[in-house]
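// run 5 | inverse folding | seed 20
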C-alpha cells in the first residue's frame, strides 16, 4: 500500500494515550537509544524554530511534489493530540504548508507537523507556536491537482510510518515509535533517564567518565599508555 494514491482512511488505531503521555516526558535522543537506536528520520529534518517540541500520534499523508491537496484532506482526519506526517512520491522542497493550514490543523487539535518537503510562513508559525519539522524552508507555492492518500503507511525521510505511530520531535530531530511498541519503549526510556540522572550526579561531583563508564581497562587493552610527563615520554622514545 505504500505509494498508493486515492485512499483516505477516516478512522485508524492509535498508540494508547498513557504511553504517548509517558513518551512526551523524554527527548528524541533518549527514546532513540531506548528503542535500540532506530526510528530516526534523516538529519535534514529540522524544526523551523528553536525549542520546538511535539509528541503525538501520526496521521500519515502521501503527497506528490509541489501539491498540497492531501494536507487539506488530512485536516478532516486529525484528532486532538495528532501529529501530521507527510512523505512525498519523490524529492521536493516546495513550501507545501503555511500559517493557513496550521490554523486549520490547530483547530482540529493537531500538535505539530513533520513534512519531508518545504514549509513557509515560518514567522507566523513561530508566533502561533505551531511546531513544524521540515526538509526545507521555501516560499515557493504549490498546487492542488493530484491526489495522494491519507492514513496509509508512508516513508518519511527514510523511516516507515504507520497511522497511529508515536511521533516525538524536538531540537535533536524526529523519531518514530511503532504504536505496538509504545508502552515498552516508554518504560525503557524512563529507566534510561533514571540511570542517566545518577550518572549526571557523579559527573557533576567531579568523577570522570573514564571511571563512571569503566573505560580504563579496555583502553589499556587497546594499547593506550600513560606517561607522567613529557620527559618520561622522551626517555621511552629514545
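// decoded
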Amino acid at each position: 500500500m505504500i505509494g498508493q494514491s486515492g485512499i483516505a482512511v477516516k478512522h485508524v488505531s492509535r498508540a494508547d494515550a498513557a504511553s504517548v503521555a509517558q513518551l512526551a516526558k523524554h527527548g528524541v535522543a533518549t527514546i532513540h537509544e531506548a528503542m535500540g537506536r532506530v526510528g530516526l528520520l534523516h538529519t535534514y529534518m529540522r524544526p523551523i524554530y528553536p525549542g520546538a517540541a511535539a509528541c503525538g500520534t501520526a496521521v500519515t499523508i502521501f503527497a506528490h511534489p509541489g501539491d498540497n491537496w492531501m494536507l487539506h484532506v488530512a485536516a478532516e482526519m486529525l484528532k486532538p493530540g495528532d501529529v501530521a506526517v507527510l512523505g512525498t512520491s519523490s524529492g521536493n522542497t516546495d513550501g507545501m504548508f503555511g500559517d493557513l493550514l496550521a490554523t486549520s490543523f490547530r483547530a482540529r487539535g493537531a500538535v505539530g507537523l513533520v513534512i519531508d518537503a518545504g514549509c513557509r510562513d515560518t514567522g507566523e508559525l513561530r508566533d502561533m507556536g505551531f511546531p513544524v519539522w521540515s526538509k526545507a524552508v521555501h516560499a515557493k507555492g504549490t498546487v492542488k491537482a493530484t491526489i495522494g492518500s491519507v492514513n496509509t503507511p508512508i516513508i518519511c525521510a527514510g523511516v516507515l510510518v504507520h497511522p497511529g505511530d508515536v511521533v516525538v520531535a524536538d531540537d535533536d530531530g524526529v523519531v518514530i515509535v511503532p504504536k505496538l511498541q509504545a508502552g515498552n519503549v516508554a518504560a525503557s526510556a524512563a529507566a534510561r533517564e533514571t540511570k542517566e540522572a545518577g550518572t549526571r550526579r557523579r559527573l557533576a561531583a567531579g568523577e570522570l567518565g573514564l571511571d563512571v563508564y569503566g573505560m580504563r581497562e579496555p583502553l589499556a587493552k587497546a594499547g593506550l599508555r600513560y606517561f607522567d610527563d613529557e620527559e618520561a615520554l622522551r626517555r621511552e622514545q629514545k
